[in-house]
Amino acid sequence: MENTCKIGIIVAMRSELEKLAGMISSPVTEKIGAHEFISGRLASQDVILACCGVGKVNAAACAAEMIMRYAPAAVINTGVAGGLADGMRVGDIVVADGAVEHDLDYGELGDERGMIFFPDGREEKLLAADEGTADALYLAAEKAALGVRRGVVASGDVFVSDSKKKQDIVATFGAVACEMEGAAIAHVCRLFGTPFGILRSISDSANEDSPVDFPTFVKIAADNAASVIVNYLDGLN
Ligand code: ADE
């Protein structure tokens, strides 16, 4: 079994991986299925870094593989997100208090949208992030002098680029940002009892401008998120 003090970090896309991967010293890469896991030192911490691919299934598989192979002390999901709350700007940071699966819908069955029915019978809609981890991520964002917001992050297998869909997610879940992996990783962490956190940076406003804004700003936002993750790891010393 690996060192249990490792912090697991999961991103979805290569553009979100590059900055963090480039800063890892003595990297060792191991492949499990299609996922590569890079172990090494980052900001004086032992980390295990993986790029899961886009969407909830990729994210869930990667999180399960990471936890089973490396038993990290906590898993942090980072990268970019669409801003849902008013006043959020490109490059701002979002730290999740919790995550929801906004595309979990039981239709005419009538169960509450987003409700997760766990194998042990528990029912939970909001997957609460580890409070200490969320506090530390928030402090790290403040230290980077970036705009930072705390709240619910909504995940689903959909790129939100429609104001109506955006309003629906805000009205139903009170979410401040949307993306496509965080809640799936949170869900798997809950299944394994592993503490988790989500820190994202805003690349677009989840509206009709998003198809242009996302590719324009994804790199700036991804690098902002990576900088805050480095601050967070530094602060763990
Ligand atoms: N990640 C970044 N922007 C997003 C959006 N608008 N919808 C879903 N995921 C995103």
Give a verbal description of the structure.
This protein has 237 residues and is α/β, with parallel strands linked by helices. It has a single domain (7-235), classed as Nucleoside phosphorylase domain (Rossmann fold, 3-Layer(aba) Sandwich), CATH 3.40.50. 36% of the residues lie in helices and 32% in strands. The protein has helices at residues 14-23, 56-70, 131-143, 163-173, 182-192, 210-235, and strands spanning 7-11, 25-32, 35-42, 45-51, 74-83, 93-101, 116-117, 123-124, 127-128, 148-155, 175-179, 196-204. The strands form two sheets. A five-stranded mixed barrel has the order 5-11-10-6-12, surrounded by five helices. Helix 1 packs parallel to helix 6, helix 2 runs parallel beside helix 5 and helix 3 (131-143) packs across helix 6. The longest helix is centred in the C-terminal third of the chain and has 26 residues, at 210-235. It starts with 6 loop residues before the first strand and ends with a helix. It binds adenine. Adenine (ADE) binds next to strand 5, strand 11, strand 12 and helix 6. The site of adenine has 14 residues, from strand 5, strand 11, strand 12 and helix 6.
Write the layout of secondary structure elements.
Layout: E1 7-11, H1 14-23, E2 25-32, E3 35-42, E4 45-51, H2 56-70, E5 74-83, E6 93-101, E7 116-117, E8 123-124, E9 127-128, H3 131-143, E10 148-155, H4 163-173, E11 175-179, H5 182-192, E12 196-204, H6 210-235
Parallel strand pairs: 1-4, 1-5, 5-12, 6-10, 10-11
Antiparallel strand pairs: 2-3, 3-4, 5-11, 6-9, 6-12, 7-8
Helix pairs in contact: 1-6, 2-5, 3-6
